[in-house]
């Protein structure tokens, strides 16, 4: 039958379903088979031929028919899984049912009255499969559906290569088949890479799309404060009930990490061969991050010890979370597996960068946001992986793409989520000493970026990009400033030598943040000054030798520090500063920062195209909730300051640290300022002005300024190189206050970020699935869809 005919017949069946007011019996196969038996419709056809209005009409007018349609379609998938889909006809039925369910499920989820439907039991569908009358034991429809999908994903000659030697061999029995021998791709725990097969990839993709649609019930629930409500679909699929959990987890992870969009290393190859792998890889990445949606703050994740076993998973650890995907991820431990994962993710994240200097040489992938979520999950759930990433300079292969995305997206309102996840990852990494140490590696890759040209290290790149985000990003990025500066504070004790460009950028930020109107105009703005002073103190105390550029910049801008020390605290001065604000331009203009030319070949960061869709995000917790303070001991180990008994703030904690009650008070005040009630008082300014950690810098200026001035007068100098040479050989040993302990603010898991990740991840999935538009125009509750 021609495809036009089959489309017509399928459309007729849909019309019959929407116009029948009487329930159609489940036994009426002649009627139900029209939806799947003799049609060859693509998923796009199904979306076109089953309009949303008609699905909703059936749901309202004849609910029993919609229920039967779902039940029959699931039954067909279960039969396909039981039989092993040996005939072309059976495979076609499975694909048709899969497409139909992908189309209908979102409309079931959007109606609260239907929410329990898939979790109700269907008479006769016994858990054992045999007991027809055994209703006690009946499986909910959702469970039958999920198990059928899992079986079908390892179905020989349908989604995996058959291992039969010849056609004479009997068909592989799908029940006794060990799916671990059919993992889709070599990598973690599997050495054999099967022949690529376009048809198998397409079939897997359709089934994964259905699986993702099952999981998407989460989109139809409003964001909950307790993120403890687990997604029942994910919970069941990732439980021991699914006998394919391990091979499927491994297949998804390996498919993503082994993918090479370059066309196996040959530039421009993708123009000759259409790449059918990418849609599968994208789908695999999306399913993987959804199965790993697990709030690590509220659960015990397996502790890490040094034992290893012969398997890819570390068996020596205590049993971890119930979710087997999270469990397996947290137990990967072999170096070669870590190398494979890290190389794969770095290769894919760098793909858009390669694009910029060899245009069109490789296929440009679009799923970098999913990859960043996956990388986050790996670091968050598997500490051994995090340590592996930081063990070598390979971490820079993740850092550079993240800085590229941050810089590229800074002006685009629709990419706020991307900005957040990039910053969160850097915050997580910055809590480890090794990250700061790695940043000292010279930066030589010349990725065209819209930033000033500089010669220096990866630390310079990070500072220059952060400065650009703060001074020329859009307003909605302000909540990230605390995070950006916390990252710089965390790495500062380890930075051996900042370039002049980066040193000037840091001082420009201090200048901008310490203007009186900025300090007084919101309850928490002064934190930014505290962070910057802490950066300068760390570098002066721990890395003075080698940082003559920064010392020189501090000397040149010494007036900023004197102004801070003499900050007015009387009410008339405060009011005058705020009056000035009403006339002032944007909070951070680029004036006073010598921009210099941008890198060759770079394009300026562009705002979103008008009309671009974006999804709303929940607010992220403040930096004091996001991080936990730890002190670095003499031997380099970290000691948490959070659980320690409340000690006198003068002893053991740096001056920059404000006692937590001050933070709490400010949190309260800033809530007031958000509602437009903010009125700074003299007491408030005095409360933090007295804690500004200026002693070290003032001492440095006191010692060095007269010496520098003397050189300039003696030699009639205006040339900085001579002054820099003097500063390079200078020393402040014995002249500075006793070094303060290094304080690191480490990211800590919390329910607020878990909820943020959930809304961000589903927002990305919603917007990226446009062909077919699975969730478009359905009543999602987890976020709002907005136009820029």
From TrEMBL:
Biased composition (Polar residues): 669-678
Region (Disordered): 297-316, 579-678
One Gene Ontology cellular component annotation held by this UniProt entry: Golgi trans cisterna
InterPro entries found in the cross-reference section: Hid-1/Ecm30 (IPR026705)
Biased composition (Low complexity): 297-313
One family name in Pfam for this protein: Hid1
Highest taxon in the source lineage: Eukaryota
PANTHER family for the chain: PROTEIN HID1 (PTHR21575:SF12)
The protein's name in its UniProt record: Protein HID1 isoform X1
Name of the encoding gene: HID1
């Amino acid at each position: 039958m021609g495809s036009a005919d089959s489309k017509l017949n399928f459309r007729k069946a849909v019309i019959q379903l929407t116009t029948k007011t009487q329930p159609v019996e489940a036994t009426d196969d002649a009627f139900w088979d029209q939806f799947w038996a003799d049609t060859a419709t693509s998923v796009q056809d199904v979306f076109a031929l089953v309009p949303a209005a008609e699905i909703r009409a059936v749901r309202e007018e004849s609910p029993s028919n919609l229920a039967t349609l779902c039940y029959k379609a699931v039954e067909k998938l279960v039969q396909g899984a039981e039989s092993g889909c040996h005939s072309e006809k059976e495979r076609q039925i499975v694909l048709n049912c899969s497409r139909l369910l992908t189309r209908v499920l979102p409309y079931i989820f959007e109606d609260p009255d239907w929410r329990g439907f898939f979790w109700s039991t269907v008479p006769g569908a016994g858990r054992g499969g045999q007991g027809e009358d055994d209703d006690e034991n009946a499986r909910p429809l959702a469970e039958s559906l999920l198990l059928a999908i899992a079986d079908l994903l390892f179905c020989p000659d349908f989604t995996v290569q058959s291992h039969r030697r010849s056609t004479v061999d009997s068909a592989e029995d799908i029940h006794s088949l060990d799916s671990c021998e059919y993992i889709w791709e070599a990598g973690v725990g599997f050495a054999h890479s099967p022949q690529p097969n376009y048809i198998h990839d397409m079939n897997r993709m359709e089934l994964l799309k259905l699986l993702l649609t099952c999981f998407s019930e989460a989109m139809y629930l409003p964001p909950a404060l307790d993120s403890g409500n687990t997604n029942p679909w994910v919970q069941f699929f990732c439980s021991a009930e699914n006998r394919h959990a391990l091979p499927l987890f491994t297949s998804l992870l390996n498919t993503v990490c082994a993918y090479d969009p370059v066309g196996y290393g040959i530039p421009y190859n993708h123009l000759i061969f259409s790449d059918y792998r990418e849609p599968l890889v994208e789908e695999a990445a999306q399913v993987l991050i959804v199965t790993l949606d697990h709030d690590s703050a509220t659960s015990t994740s397996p502790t890490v010890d040094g034992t290893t076993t012969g398997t890819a998973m570390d068996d020596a650890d205590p049993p971890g979370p119930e979710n087997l995907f999270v469990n397996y991820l947290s137990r990967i431990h072999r170096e070669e597996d870590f190398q494979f994962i890290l190389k794969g993710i770095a290769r894919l994240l760098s793909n858009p960068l390669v694009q910029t200097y060899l245009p069109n040489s490789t296929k440009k992938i679009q799923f970098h946001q999913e990859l960043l979520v996956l990388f986050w999950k790996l670091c968050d759930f598997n500490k051994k992986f995090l340590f592996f990433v930081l063990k070598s300079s390979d971490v820079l292969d993740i850092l550079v793409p993240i800085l590229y995305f941050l810089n590229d997206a800074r002006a685009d309102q629709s990419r706020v989520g991307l900005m957040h996840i990039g910053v969160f990852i850097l915050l997580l990494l910055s809590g480890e000493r090794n990250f700061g140490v790695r940043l000292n590696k010279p930066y030589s890759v010349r990725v065209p970026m819209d930033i000033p040209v500089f010669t220096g290290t990866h630390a310079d790149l990070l500072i220059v990009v952060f400065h650009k985000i703060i001074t020329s990003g859009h307003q909605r990025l302000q909540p990230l400033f605390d995070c950006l500066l916390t990252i710089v504070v965390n790495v500062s004790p380890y930075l051996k030598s900042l370039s002049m460009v980066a040193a000037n950028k840091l001082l420009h930020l201090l200048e901008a943040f310490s203007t009186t109107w900025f300090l007084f105009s919101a309850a928490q703005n002064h934190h930014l000054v505290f962070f910057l002073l802490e950066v300068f103190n760390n570098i002066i105390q721990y890395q003075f030798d080698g940082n003559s550029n920064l010392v020189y910049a501090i000397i040149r801008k010494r007036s900023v520090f004197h102004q801070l020390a003499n900050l007015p605290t009387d009410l008339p001065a405060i009011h005058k500063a705020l009056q000035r604000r009403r006339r002032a331009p944007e909070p951070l203009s680029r004036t006073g920062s010598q921009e210099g030319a941008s890198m060759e070949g770079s394009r300026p960061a562009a705002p979103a195209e008008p009309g671009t869709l974006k999804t709303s995000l929940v607010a992220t917790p403040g930096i004091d909730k996001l991080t936990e303070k730890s002190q670095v001991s003499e031997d380099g180990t970290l000691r948490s300051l959070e659980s320690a008994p409340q000690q006198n703030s003068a002893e053991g904690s740096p001056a920059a640290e404000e006692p937590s009650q001050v933070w709490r008070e400010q949190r309260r005040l800033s809530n007031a300022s958000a509602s437009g009630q903010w009125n700074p008082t003299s007491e408030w300014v005095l409360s933090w002005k007295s804690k500004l950690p200026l002693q070290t810098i003032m001492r440095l200026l006191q010692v060095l300024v007269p010496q520098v001035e003397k050189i300039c007068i003696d030699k009639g100098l205006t040339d900085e190189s001579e002054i820099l040479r003097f500063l390079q050989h200078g020393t402040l040993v014995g002249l500075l206050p006793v070094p303060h302990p290094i304080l690191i603010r480490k990211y800590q898991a919390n329910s607020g970020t878990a909820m943020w990740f959930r809304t961000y991840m589903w927002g990305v999935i919603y917007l990226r699935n446009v062909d077919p538009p699975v969730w478009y125009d359905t009543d999602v509750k987890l976020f709002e869809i907005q136009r820029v």
